[in-house]
Amino acid sequence: MKTIPEFVLKDAYGKEFSYKNLFGDYWVIYFYPKAGTPGCSMEAIDFTSHIEEFEGKVVGISPDKQPALCRFIDSRKLKVILLSDPDKAVAGKFGVVENGKIVRSTFIVDPLGRIRKSWLKVKVPGHVKEVLEEFKRIKQEDKQISPDILARRAYRGLRSDPIPKEDLIRLIEAAHLAPSCFNNQPWRYIIVTDKQTLEKLWESLTSGNYWMKNAPAMIVVYTKEDFDCKLSDNRNYALFDTGLSVGFLMVQATRMNLVAHPVAGYDPLKVKEIFGIDGIVITLIAVGKRGNFDSLNEKHLEREFGERQREPFEKILKIF
């Protein structure tokens, strides 16, 4: 997903407006060729008529100089913010310049500065209504729980199909983007796909994790106490931060239509011996595609297709 380019322009009254002003809110940025022309006037008036629904967050950018923008605002009673881009440098950064001219275009930007929707070569009639509908839809969508979090489950019915190396590495790339105390990044990962090494890992599993032997890949996650912050009241952030990292990995796996199922049922001493690990083995993660259910016992088969089990919300949340 693209993010807004850096820019600083002046508005109709000479005040600087920066890309930084966009962070924290949803905005509409639209580019138009020339103030005062029929199509540009209609578009600006349409945005103005819906400015409250856009919460005042509409910016129009054109090559016009500030005096022309002032006249445009006064003559059409506009309520949008108009910025002057005389050399079309910012328009160029947004990719809306063709043959030296600005192409009428619109972008919706979210509070993190990501461009969520774009329209190029816009036709003015009905355009603002379409933008408003998308603006409202994106805002509402962003209040929902991520579909990848909703879809994530601790499935056990894994197929043995090999997972491409680059896909497994992508999971670790996602995990490595997790936050950590003072950015210490205490997590360490080992990807295992070699059959002989997998068989050694199987020997460390408890009997209830028999299903992991179908997984084409396993990931060993470990850390060490002195890799991260040690704080008051025995707070060892190496454990917390590594857990956050694993959470990122699991969501990314779901995004990629994979199952990443971490377990606690293994002999950590055996795992450390296999890989020469000096530290704490936090978890083993089975990674694979879902779809093999024949080997599951009755209890696990029931869980595989049963409803997600969660404690009552009132048990885990207090609000003061």
TrEMBL record:
The lineage of its organism: Bacteria, Thermotogati, Thermotogota, Thermotogae, Thermotogales. This is Alkyl hydroperoxide reductase/ Thiol specific antioxidant/ Mal allergen. It comes from Pseudothermotoga thermarum DSM 5069. Residues 1-140 form the Thioredoxin domain. PROSITE patterns: THIOREDOXIN_2 (PS51352). InterPro entries: AhpC/TSA (IPR000866), Nitroreductase (IPR029479), Nitroreductase-like (IPR000415), Nitroreductase/BluB (IPR050627), Thioredoxin-like_sf (IPR036249), Thioredoxin_domain (IPR013766). GO terms for molecular function: antioxidant activity; oxidoreductase activity. SUPFAM superfamilies: FMN-dependent nitroreductase-like (SSF55469), Thioredoxin-like (SSF52833). It comes from the Bacteria. Pfam families: AhpC-TSA, Nitroreductase.
